[in-house]
Give the backbone structure.
Amino acid sequence: MAGLSFDNYQRNQYICAKGHAQPKATSTGTTIVGCKFNGGVVIAADTRATAGNIVADKNCEKLHRLAPRIWCAGAGTAADTEMVTQLIALNLELHGMWNDRQPRVITALTMLKQHLFKYQGHLGAYLICAGVDPTGAHLMSVQAHGSTDIGEYQSLGSGSLAAMAVLETKWKPNMTRDEAVLLCAEAIESGIWNDLGSGSNVDVCVMEVGKDAELLRNYLTPNVRAPKERSYKFPRGTTAILRESIREIVDVEETVIEFNKPEAMEVDA
Amino acid sequence: MSDPSSINGGCAVAMVGKDCIAIACDLRLGNQSLSLANNFEKVFPFGDKTFLGLTGLASDVLTLKEDFRLKHNLYKLREEREIEPETLANLVSSSLYERRFGPYFVGPIVAGLHSKTNKPFICGFDLIGCIDFAKDFIVSGTASDQLYGMCESLYEPDLEPEDLFETISQALLNAVDRDALSGWGAVVYIVTKDKVVKRVLRTRQD
Amino acid sequence: MTTIASEYGNENNSVPIEHRFNPYSDNGGTVLGIAGEDFAILAGDTRIVSGYNIDSRYEPKVFDVGDNIVMTANGFAADGAALIDRFKSAFKWYKFDNNNKKLTIQSAARYIQHLLYGKRFFPFYVSTLIAGLDEEGKGAVYSYDPVGSYEREQCRAGGAAASLIMPFLDNQVNFKNQFEPGSDGRVKKPLRYLSLEEVLALVRDAFTSATERHIQVGDGLEVLIVTKDGIKKVYYPLKRD
């Protein structure tokens, strides 16, 4: 029951041996960045999820919560980033309860890298992990094979070059919170415009030492669809119907009415 | 073309309307270009107002349909109530991810109304269970490109049930007519708080 | 023998890596042609891509090739440009050799078939469309496969997002699957010519929808409108993400 099941593995090898590739899983083409500032750290992501050349989700959430003050931006195979993040969040919660301490970013990072290394890169999760804990603010990244990086500013995903171009030209030490948020948002926007795998909106999460993390969902929405030229509502009856069946959903209420209920027998004390 | 998820063909689509949802699928079952059956429904009810659409490899569609029927029955026995669409979505997601390294070749979609609040809910998945929460429409199957094009241009929010029926039907019909592996009949479910209407559509038979 | 380090599904299939020059690439983009009663349009987005990169946000790919004919070849951009160059050059010689005789659209159409089939075993990797007016003054659109099989049609989408746009055109131009309300699905919605305004609205909605869902479509939409008075060019911006 526990763990992953490999029941279909041989069957799929057989099916795919005759054919070609495996069907594509949704990947978050993605631009994600993170940046430290005086007294905290901020991470940001775009919101496009792709399946091949098609946009599967125009406004997905790539910022995941590992702990109340530790957040994680994910690129790569969408299901892997989501599931690996949920698993580590769960274990981090238990870890925190067992030790009666707030979880640390380095703990989250270690759990992530050990898990990913165990799977030898087959879990396609590329994460920027950031947060605040009793030891201060931290910003780190993990690759699918389990290698990690620590830095003042980072970017990952197909739009990482576009984002890094912005970070490298505009980053400076000891930024304020607002400067860092603006820088991250601009780096993500660079990915949105210049990388085809990234698009739609900018999500931001700010973590400041001693404060609750603040998720700014859809911090920027520079890609709202313009209204259509006309409505494509059809006159009712346009579609040809062969048969129709209707199922009414009714609530059945039951009330018990009893007649001639005998009085309770009197018992002498 | 012998990609497992496009051997049998078929597609499904779901849309949100004003206090209602619609979910539809084609009826074709084929082996590559040879059509075998025109009664292969790909949308299954889970309780009164929740539906699951399954496209992809037909054997996996049937296997998962039965698997989820079992899990749904166990859920009902344990909880003594119907499953909510959100709950079903998470059940589907974790069941698919359990098979991360030996997946079922399916593209599920879930659509339904909340049993108490009647709030519409739709979502889609990839074959390893990544959930795509959408506010407007979800498509899946071999005609997914065509369905994306149709839905993106025809869809508008807050359609009444009867208007939603026309929109989802036209989206499906015209999409499957441009896909060699889909078609051969279609069914549409329109779900409102007190009624589920199932309509079988007249389609091209080529 | 080298094992290709990639998907787990192929990990047992050890095959030698084959190195070969690939003469083709995919530059994305989408084109669309619609014929009206006394006009025809050819529209195309102006984005050129390679991989996940945008090479250009404005590179026109629908051209006025002379004698009230417009032409586009979408797919591998270099082949598209080469095909149009060859047509333009042949067009000049046709005028020169034939005392400036007007090239009709059906002659142009047949000639393009020969240009494409001439490279039957090293094809131009493009979907080609031309539009103009026929000898009765009615709108005409011709569409081709990469090796020259062609057909005159009311409308046709080509390129990356063709599969998204084509069913929409079937539905909104040829009224496919639409019936007269109250006829119980027995009377088809009657066909009629669309006005230029209606066609332009359809084209814009088709392209904004394709832009939403296809990553290779966007930046700009350029439409060439052919009427008996000549060719008009209009440009509409599209989303740039």
